[in-house]
Amino acid sequence: MTLECEILGPSAGPLALCLHGFPDTAHTFRYLAPHLVQHGYRVVVPSMRGYAPSSLSKSNIYSLSALALDAIELHDVFEGDERAVLVGHDWGAAATYLATAAEPSRWSRAVTMALPPFIVFATALGSYRQLAASWYMTFFQNPGAEQTVANDDFDFISQLWATWSPHYDARDDVALVKRALDEPEHLTAAINYYRAMNGPAPNDARLARLDAAMANAPAVPTLYLHGRDDGCILSSGVADALAYLAPQSRMEIIDDAGHFLHLERPDCVHSLIDTFLRG
Length: 279
Known about the structure:
The chain is built from twelve helices and seven strands. By secondary structure, it is of the alpha/beta class. The protein has a single domain, classed as Rossmann fold, CATH 3.40.50.1820. Helix 3 (about 90-100) links the parallel strand 4 (about 85-90) and strand 5 (about 105-115).
């Protein structure tokens, strides 16, 4: 498949690869990307597989291992070295955890937002409140989910943003998501991220190796950021996240921010990232 990437900053700078989540677009890093450029990074922001203008997967694979492999291969394409930084939000955070677990020597540091380490989220799903907040993950297993999401000019997407970041005006962001998922095949691709969670493992040795890395202990220092008012993944369920990250990691809960904290509190998020990346 082909990934469309926005590229900013000096070609000789260390790579900073920024991965977006659902339902979102590469435009979500419109504040963070230029900020990282100011600190000398060469920033690459792909539209994740299946999200226009990136192509669909010819093999129809949208597993987490495929997302992590995309990050690893982008590291190669843009000639990243051991100074590279991986930044992920939501599904991008999931890909970041797996890519850094599978090939830690590629990355000096990682930043993850709005999704804790896998074991923490799995434990949180044992509570009624988090299970209720995650209802959409089960709904997306329904073969008719696409039609519901597209109804009323994608009002489903608007409502998710309003629920997940209740104090943020997301109209511009939602408009871009609609554009990225307007074609039925692209909408199905985005929903297939969730269907792949319960589907058979892809028959691909590279992806099998990445799947096996899910069990690896974290090896890359990671800054984990979470909005206190997140309506998607409740902040009450992520308190133990730091215990499952690599040494020298940090965790911060951001007040007055929801799921899209990097858009709601960019100055705060940038300051925390700056301090962490300086080491």
